[in-house]
Amino acid sequence: MSSTQPSLSSGPPKLLQLTRTLVSSSGAVLLALLVGAVFILISDQNPLEAYRALLDGAFGGRRAVAETLVAATPMILGGLAFAVAARAGMFNIGIEGQLVIGSLAGGIVAAMDLGLPTILYVPLVLLTGGLAGGVWGALPGILKARSGASEVITTIMLNYLAFRISTYAVTNAADWLEYVDPQQKATLKAPPEARLPIILDKTRLHAGFLVAIGAALILWYLLFRTTFGYKIRTVGLSQGAAAFAGIGWGRTITLAMFVSGMLGGLAGVVEVSGLLGRHYDSRAGYGFTAIAVGLVGRNNPIGVILAGILFGVLRNGSNAMQSQAGTSKELVSILQGLVILSISALAAIEYMRSRRAARVETAPPAPPQAQADVVTTGAPV
Questions:
Q1: pLDDT higher for 181 or 357?
Q2: SS3 track for 352-369
């Protein structure tokens, strides 16, 4: 059986490959910052002062670092959600909807005040949100496997359905759902036993950041050290190769989308249990930013951690850019777009190089007669 499985570990050693990826991605980010400096100059402002304010807002003190990591937490989890789906060849645009469903489900369980100790209540809340997001994420996988429906279309549609369910639950369902507050457009406040603990005193940095790091390490192990991860990567590389190796394509993409949705739901419920204390019917946009995080992280869990922190820096430092350097906050959105563009261009170049190298390696040898002609005459006939 092993002889029929496609090789997914060819090329340079993994450590060297990871180092090259980090160096190239860092270069792409640096290029984006240089281009961003041009935009800042065009705005008649000093790019050095703007970037100094950005770094000061992101790392200028204990509280600033904590806020950067707080902002990075849901983006890391969302980026992981995108990465695992992309590894299976699925483009999950529904992370925002999965985040909302996970946040709503976890917020309701937290608002029930079950009287459990923290060591039981917090995992229950997180598990509820994760499973709810997982079920929501699996639906596009099932539709793709059964009918071939594009996951791009179905995930977008499910986003809007998730938004409507959230709005209905917290505003119109109060007659039969006692755990919501229509005036706040939110669920009831979670008791302290359902809240993730603060891990840095006198800041808002909660244990959700550790959950995100742990999820990234688990996902890395799942993708690169287990049979299930091998199946996901094989399906993502080639449906034909997966079928040749006896891997069930429909089952694999459905499970991959479940894991993706679970991570998206976890991103939402971590905000409820760690930061907000309840589910609000609002859109922070983390799910859409998560797509960019996954792309910048090159769909590698370790890269996603670094990309999530990078976007946390941009998100948290943008306020300091505006207040200290007078830079428009919208320029941060331009910087994010430039980072995504640079990474995408780099990935496209590397993809074309790999395809060209593959064509050279698989090119058929010249016929024996042609080779003999070359040897005897110096030129093919």
A1: 181
A2: HHHHHHHHHHCCCCCCHH
